[in-house]
Design a protein that fits this description.
With 174 residues, the chain is an alpha/beta fold. The chain has helices at residues 10-24, 46-62, 110-117, 122-130, 140-145, 152-168, 170-173, and strands at 2-5, 29-32, 68-79, 82-93, 98-107. The protein has a five-stranded mixed β-sheet with strand order 2-1-3-4-5. The protein is globular, with a radius of gyration of 16 Å.
Length: 174
């Protein structure tokens, strides 16, 4: 079974490998595909975040001969007068069916949001703040903001499992 991930980010690739190998065993072959998500580097609002995840999944499966395309997109949402970092995962199968699920809603400091609103990517803002190079390829904002109790990998793994729930329990979702 081939699974195409619409990203070259090692965290997203590892999350996909971990989840699909856990669910499907050695049958899962993970292919990384660089795609343009069609949204800004740090999308604002769930519509844009979900659009980026779906675009990644569709472009990944279309550019390969995979059974599944996976797209993951993180961004910023405003709810209840506060800002949150969140991520959405889209999984598209070879029949074109799209399954969606979200990861965390982690409070995001306004000082970071203000800099992102000026056009800077959140990953770069965090690199400058922490001094950790390529932070989005490592623990990410989640690792920094939770003092390492959670990280970007675990958040994407959860979102992937949630998005796969429709395939895991078709008897319930029919």
């Amino acid at each position: 079974m081939k699974v195409a991930v619409g990203s070259t980010n090692p965290v997203k690739i590892s999350a996909t490998k971990n989840v699909f190998k856990q669910v499907y065993g050695l049958l899962a072959e993970i292919i990384s595909v660089e795609v343009d998500p069609g949204v800004s580097h740090t999308p604002f609002g769930e519509d844009q975040i979900v659009k980026g995840a779906i675009n990644r999944a569709i472009k990944a499966i279309r550019s390969t001969n995979a059974e599944f395309g996976v797209g993951m997109e993180g961004g910023i949402v405003e709810k209840f007068g506060k800002y949150f970092l969140t991520g959405w995962c889209a999984i598209v199968d070879k029949n074109g069916y799209i399954s969606l699920a979200s990861s965390v809603y982690l409070p995001l400091p306004k000082k970071f949001v203000d800099v992102v609103k000026q056009g800077k990517e959140l990953g770069l803002v965090l690199e400058e703040y922490t001094g950790i190079k390529d932070i989005k390829k490592k623990e990410g904002a989640i690792g920094v903001l939770t003092s390492g109790y959670k990280d970007r990998l675990s958040a994407w793994e959860s979102a992937l499992i949630y998005a796969l729930s429709i395939k895991l329990r078709p008897d319930i979702y029919r």
